[in-house]
Amino acid sequence: MAVIAALALGVWIYQVLFPSDEKVIRKLLAEAAETAAIRPNENPLVTLAGGNKLVGFFSRDAVLKVDVAGVDGRTISGHDDLLQAVTAARASLQEAKIQIHEMHVVVNADKVSATAQIVASAYINGSSDPMVQ
Q1: What is the pLDDT of residues 56-95, one digit of tens each?
Q2: Rounded to an integer, what distance in angstroms lies between the CA atom of residue 39 and that of residue 98?
Q3: Chain Cα centroid distance, residue 22
Q4: What is the pLDDT of residues 28-56, one digit of tens each?
Q5: In the predicted structure, residue 112 carries a pLDDT above the cut 60
Q6: Do the Cβ atoms of 123 and 130 come closer than 8 Å?
Q7: What are the CA-CA distances from residue 108 to residues 13, 79, 111 (Å)?
């Protein structure tokens, strides 16, 4: 019995110390959603810094495809385009809350790239009606 418990503990420790690529990506995307939030009456410098931190979650060659119901889809490629989009969006917002509902992550066989599909609700400027994307 003690051997089985020790083996189970060893497997758990290994998973904690060396999580799968999918788990790492899921955690980073959850942190990115939290970083994307804007608190009411946030200092503009903090808002700008949050935008830079948000962009830092993505690789330099990341491609984001954004589809919002009722709005034309948009593709954002690379850090420069992402930083422009994030800075423009954050400049026009007073408050933003992001909640992730679904997340599907597929790590490609090359272990160098991955695809993630996310369903999230964004509550903008104190609205109680979310924008779902």
Answers
A1: 998 888 898 888 777 778 899 988 999 998 888 888 888 8
A2: 11
A3: 13
A4: 999 999 998 888 888 878 887 888 899 99
A5: yes
A6: yes
A7: 25, 21, 6
**Tokens at 88, concatenated:** 């423009």
Q: Where are the alpha helices (DSSP H) in the chain?
A: 2-17, 21-36, 44-55, 78-91
Taking the C-alpha atoms of residue 79 and residue 59, their distance in angstroms, rounded to an integer, is 7
> If 0-12 CB within 10 Å is exposed, 13-18 middle and 19+ buried, where does residue 104 land?
exposed
For residue 6 the two structure tokens come to: 């020790």
Q: What is the pLDDT of residue 31?
A: 92
Structure token digits, residue 38: 């804007």
pLDDT confidence tier of residue 133, bands split at 50, 70 and 90: low
Q: Are 85 and 93 in contact (CB under 8 A)?
A: no
Q: Are 55 and 73 in contact (CB under 8 A)?
A: no
Residue 67 amino acid letter: D
For range 100-120, the mean pLDDT: 89
Q: 86 and 54 in contact (C-beta within 8 Å)?
A: yes
Chain mean position to CA 54: 8
Rounded distance between C-alpha atoms, residue 30 and residue 40, angstroms: 21
